[in-house]
Amino acid sequence: MEVKNPIIGQTNNAQGQGSMDRVRKKKFWNTQRIAIFAGGGALIAFIVYQLFFSDKRSKLNVEAEKLTVSAVSTGSFDEFIVVTGVVQPLKIIRLDAIVGGYVREKIVEGGSMVSQGQVLLKLENQNLKLNFLQSETEASRLVNDLQNTRQQLKVARFNIRRTLNELEFKIDQAKDTYERNQKLYKDKVIPESDFLKSKRDYELLVKQKEIETESQTYQEENAKMQIAQLEGTLLRTQRNVDLWRQTLDNLVVKAPVGGLLSSIDVEVGSNISQGQNIGQIDDLNGFKMRVAIDEHYVSRIFVGLGGSFEFNGKDHPLTITRIYPEVKNGRFEVDMSFPKGTPEGIKRGQSTPIRLELGKAEKALLLPVGGFFSDTGGNWVYVLDNSGKRAIKRNITLGRKNPEYYEVLEGLQAGEKVITSSYANFGDKEVLELK
C-alpha cells in the first residue's frame, strides 16, 4: 500500500504544470503609462507656456463690418478750418427811436425799398408836445420882459435928462445970483449973510448935478446888464424851443439813407422807448460775409487772413477785414470781403461753408479724422497687424488738425491701418480680435 505525501504531491504537481505554462515578462512603457506621461507633459508644457510665453493682454472680439479702418499716409497737410458764413450787406443802418411814443401810423412794411428821407412811421407823444408848449411860453415871457426892460431904460433916460436940464437951469440962475451978490458984497451993498446964502445955494446945485450924473451912469450900466442877462436867457430858451421842435419832428421817423428796409419790428398802437431798435436798412451796393469762429482759434485770426468758398460751381476768395473780439457762447465773429468782387447772384441771408486757411501746406504723416479722438484724446489708437485680423493698442502723438486729417508726430508709419471709428464700446482692452 502506497502512502502519498500531500506536500510533495502538490509540489510535483506545480512543477509539472509550470513546465507546461511559462510566465511572460511585463513591459514598463505600456499604453496606459504612455498616455499618463503624455498628458502630464502636455499639461506641464501648457502651464509653462501660459506662465512665460502666452499673450496675457486683455482681448475683445469685435465685428469688423462695424469698424472704420483708415490707412496712414504721407501727403500735404493743409491747416484750415471750415466755418459758416452768412451773406450780409456791406453797410447795415440801424433804425433806433430818437424819441419814445406810441405808433400812430405805420407807412412802410419790411422788405420794401425806401429812399432817403421817406417817412416810415408816425409816433405820438403828448408829454413832448406839452414840454414844447411850455418852452414856447417861457420864451414869449422872456421876450416881453426884455422889451419892458428896454422900455423902462428909455423912460429912465428921459427922466434923467429932464432932471439934469432942470438942474442946469437952476445952476445957471444960482450962479448969476452968486456972482452978482459977490460983487455987491465987495461993494458992501449987501450983508455977508446974503452973499454966503447965494454961494451955498449955487454949490448945492452943482453937487446935486454931480450926484444925478453918477446916478444916471449907474442906472444906465445896470439896465444894460439886465438887458444882456435877459438876452442870454432868451437865447437859451429859444434854443430849447428849437430842440423841442426838432424832438417833435423826430416823432416822424424817416429813412436816413436809401436801401432795403429789411425789418421794421413795430405795429400800430405799440409803445416805443427812446433808443429802442425798430428796424434796419440794408445798403445793397455791396455785400460781405459775417463768419462765426470758435474761440479756440482767436489767437490765430488776424485781418488779412484768407479763405474761400464755393458758389455756382466756382471757388471765390475771401479776406478778413474786421474782427469782433467779443466772445459769445464760445464763438467770436469776423467780417470777410470779396477781394475779386461780389459773386453774381449772391443774396443777403445766404449761408455757406467757408474754408479758412490758418497756415501754408506742409508735407506730413496723415491720419484721417474719426470718432476715436473723443475717446482717446489722440493719445493712442488700435493698429491692425499684417493679418488684418487683430488690432493692437498703441500709443501715438498727434499734432495739428484740419477737418480731414490729423498730423501724426510719433507712433505710426505710412501704410499702417488704424481703426478710426469710435472706441466707446471697447473699454480698456489692449487687443481687438476682428471676426
From TrEMBL:
Keywords: Coiled coil, Membrane, Transmembrane, Transmembrane helix. Residues 211-240 form a coiled coil. InterPro entries: MdtA-like_C, RND_pump_MFP, UPF0194_transport. Residues 364-421 form the Multidrug resistance protein MdtA-like C-terminal permuted SH3 domain. One of its GO terms (molecular function) is transmembrane transporter activity. The keyword Phosphoprotein does not apply. One of its GO terms (cellular component) is cell envelope. Pfam families: RND-MFP_C. Belongs to the membrane fusion protein (MFP) (TC 8.A.1) family. This is Efflux transporter, RND family, MFP subunit. It comes from Runella slithyformis (strain ATCC 29530 / DSM 19594 / LMG 11500 / NCIMB 11436 / LSU 4).
